[in-house]
């Protein structure tokens, strides 16, 4: 068993589950060999959380890689935290079927965290008034599976403040996690405040801004001052604010580097300088028009 170079802290979700602060994002990891290599590198580096989705089309490969690799590191299913997400094509009346398909693909008895991936429905216009009803139907299905223990925690991704308020008013089980794009150019203060008030864990994706933030002059200067990589600085900026991150990479060296964010701190000045880059810029999709 390889020694792990770090011990990832975890955050307590409102279900009582502990979720690691650092997870491996698997978006665009489509080849079974790439998935296997990335999972191997991540487990070796100490990652214990893995984030997939129905639309990534790699749930089966991720499940297989974990089954093959966990014994190599002396680990069992209970030692890892698996997240997946309901595809927009299954929003609404197909949500139960979609979630059970994710379970089947991953070949798991339960998924630790299952999210509604997008507030809209595939095939409907963003302004279509059926979207809210479909979201509510999806959430009811997730609540049912949560009650059965098949989804240990449930949450949402890419929801706006309006979507979150709508959900909080109608749900029987509150969302455990909101996963959204978050980096120094998109600080999402209203969503963060709403999550804090509601006891929802705010989780970041696209922490590196699809790689574009790695060459930002402020990021580069902070990285040079603390003798770290720009990626480590961007991840540390979120982690130091108590926000879990999901860096994605298929490169074993980068996977290891991205894990090395728990043995240094940014100064308050550095945090402020990076946060001052906020201009509301999205590198990914914008959910604000979804009815």
TrEMBL record:
Where does the chain bind substrate?
Answer: 117
Note the site residues: Lowers pKa of active site Tyr: 85
> What protein does this entry describe?
Zgc:101765
Q: Which SUPFAM superfamilies match?
A: NAD(P)-linked oxidoreductase
Superkingdom: Eukaryota
Q: Which UniProt keywords apply?
A: Oxidoreductase
NADP-dependent oxidoreductase domain segment(s): 22-277
Q: Which residues form a coiled coil?
A: none
The cross-references to Pfam families, in alphabetical order and at most eight, read: Aldo_ket_red
Which residues does the Swiss-Prot or TrEMBL record annotate as the active site? 56
């Amino acid at each position: 068993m390889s020694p792990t170079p770090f011990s990832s802290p975890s955050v307590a979700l409102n279900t009582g589950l502990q979720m690691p602060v650092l997870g491996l994002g698997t978006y665009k990891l489509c080849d079974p060999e790439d998935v296997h290599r990335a999972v191997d590198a991540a487990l070796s580096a100490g990652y214990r959380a893995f984030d997939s989705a129905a639309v990534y089309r790699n749930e089966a490969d991720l499940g297989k890689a974990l089954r093959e690799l966990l014994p190599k590191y002396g680990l069992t299913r209970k030692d890892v935290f698996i997240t997946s997400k309901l595809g927009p094509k299954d929003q609404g009346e197909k949500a139960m079927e979609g979630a059970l398909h994710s379970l089947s693909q991953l070949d798991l008895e339960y998924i630790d965290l299952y999210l509604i991936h997008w507030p809209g429905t595939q095939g409907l216009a963003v302004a279509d008034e059926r979207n809210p009803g479909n979201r509510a139907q999806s959430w009811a299905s997730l609540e049912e599976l949560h009650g059965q223990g098949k989804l240990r925690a449930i949450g949402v991704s890419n929801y706006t403040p309006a979507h979150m308020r709508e959900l909080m008013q109608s749900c029987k089980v509150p969302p455990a996690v909101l996963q959204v794009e978050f980096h120094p150019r998109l600080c999402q203060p209203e969503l963060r405040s709403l999550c804090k008030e509601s006891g929802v864990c705010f989780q970041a994706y696209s922490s590196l801004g699809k790689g574009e933030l790695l060459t930002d002059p402020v990021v580069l200067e902070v990285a040079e001052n603390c003798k770290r990589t720009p990626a480590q600085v961007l991840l540390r900026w979120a982690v130091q604010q108590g926000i879990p991150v999901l860096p994605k990479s298929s490169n074993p060296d980068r996977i290891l580097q991205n894990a090395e964010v728990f043995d240094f701190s940014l100064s308050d000045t550095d945090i402020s300088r990076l946060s001052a880059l906020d201009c509301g810029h999205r590198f990914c999709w914008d959910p604000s028009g979804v009815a």
